Amino acid sequence: MAYETLLTEVDNAVAIITLNRPDALNAFNNQLMDELTEALDRFDNEATIGCIVITGSKKAFAAGADIKEMREQSYLDAYYTDFITRNWERAARMRKPVIAAVSGYALGGGCELAMMCDFILAAENAKFGQPEITIGVSPGAGGTQRLTRFAGKSKAMEMCLTGRMMDAEEAERCGLVSRIVPTDELLDEAKSVARKIASMPRATAMMTKEMVNAAYETTLSQGVLFERRLFHSLFATDDQKEGMEAFVEKREPHFNNR
Ligand code: HXC
């Protein structure tokens, strides 16, 4: 499938989606959002794919929603079309693991998209921010909620109220990113992590993702119960038998994703 605003690549069980509007620092116009939604949908439903990487260019993961496209929008246009949120949350509803590999700017909707992914690998040159207030709006794709959960109220409040950017080290310190990688190695490292995840028993990986996500949606006791129920259910899989037998027999497991 050919896209105009994305590049896609499939490397065995890993799909890589590269945001590709270099002249606009990968700003999200409607076409990019439609194409991204389509690509995410396709890879989430593609049986051979076990993990997805979303990345951008060295200079920008994405500089946010396209301000030139947004500027003429009226309140009622935004309301009736459910502006941007219409298909924005697709990344957050992915069932397969999704890694954001962020180099350069991840601003506004770019930061929000990265936070919808399961974890963020940051290049040394990464910069995160919610600068919407400086152009008269607020974050609109979950930024005030997810940044607050990931980085805490004080930092999220300061970032959203001032629009300042944080660098990769600050983002790692506050728990927004899982770790920092040398800029030129980011994509190779993201692919390598994605291959590792894709090699795990598929249902176990998908359910583990659901369990971790439940920590953000429920109380501790409900989350622990949810974890236990899914944990028990994994004993119904071939891969549990194979994984444990392989350990006992001191050999590599051969998972069949059943
Ligand atoms: C449209 C954008 C853009 C954007 C950059 N460009 N960001 N176009 N929408 N969000 C365009 C510029 O107009 C310019 O095009 C080209 O990309 C290069 O950008 P420069 O500004 O010349 O680059 P630089 O000086 O290096 O500055 C980089 C930057 C700056 C700091 C990232 O571009 C910037 O501040 N961008 C806006 C960031 C922002 O406010 N994001 C939040 C958007 S609102 P030309 O044609 O001039 O060469 C948002 C709301 C989300 O995301 C709501 C929910 C989904």
UniProtKB/TrEMBL annotation:
<dbReference type="InterPro" id="IPR018376">
    <property type="entry name" value="Enoyl-CoA_hyd/isom_CS"/>
</dbReference>
<dbReference type="InterPro" id="IPR029045">
    <property type="entry name" value="ClpP/crotonase-like_dom_sf"/>
</dbReference>
<protein>
    <submittedName>
        <fullName>Enoyl-CoA hydratase</fullName>
    </submittedName>
</protein>
<dbReference type="InterPro" id="IPR014748">
    <property type="entry name" value="Enoyl-CoA_hydra_C"/>
</dbReference>
<comment type="similarity">
    <text>Belongs to the enoyl-CoA hydratase/isomerase family.</text>
</comment>
<dbReference type="InterPro" id="IPR001753">
    <property type="entry name" value="Enoyl-CoA_hydra/iso"/>
</dbReference>
<dbReference type="Pfam" id="PF00378">
    <property type="entry name" value="ECH_1"/>
</dbReference>
<keyword id="KW-0456">Lyase</keyword>
